[in-house]
Design brief:
0% strand, mainly alpha, single chain, 99 residues
């Protein structure tokens, strides 16, 4: 797997392990101990979820910023038809190829 797919699979697997861990703890221990034992996996799972959400938001904001910058650059580079004709005329005049 390339890096993108490996990261995706690792995040997805981590997110699937969180409810599995909670389920195993809930079914394996007496109800009096479950609240104390579940605290660590719950905090870890919520931490992973919040970190992934923050990284996705940051990634999308950066990607949107780069797309807007590229779009502005392309607009600046595109000449209108009149501008292109004038540029050709000026080039011909500067080279002395006018007939």
């Amino acid at each position: 797997m390339n890096n993108v797919y490996a990261r995706t699979v690792s995040i997805e697997t981590g997110m699937q392990n969180f409810p599995l861990c909670i389920g195993v703890i809930t079914l394996s221990f007496p109800p009096q101990l479950v609240y104390k034992i579940v605290l660590v996996p719950m905090v870890t799972g919520l931490g992973v979820l919040s970190n992934c959400s923050v990284f996705v938001i940051i990634y999308r904001v950066i990607r949107k910023f780069k797309e807007n910058r590229e779009r502005k650059t392309k607009k600046a580079m595109v000449m209108s038809k009149d501008d292109a004709e004038k540029a050709v005329e000026l080039e011909l005049l500067s080279n002395g190829n006018v007939e």
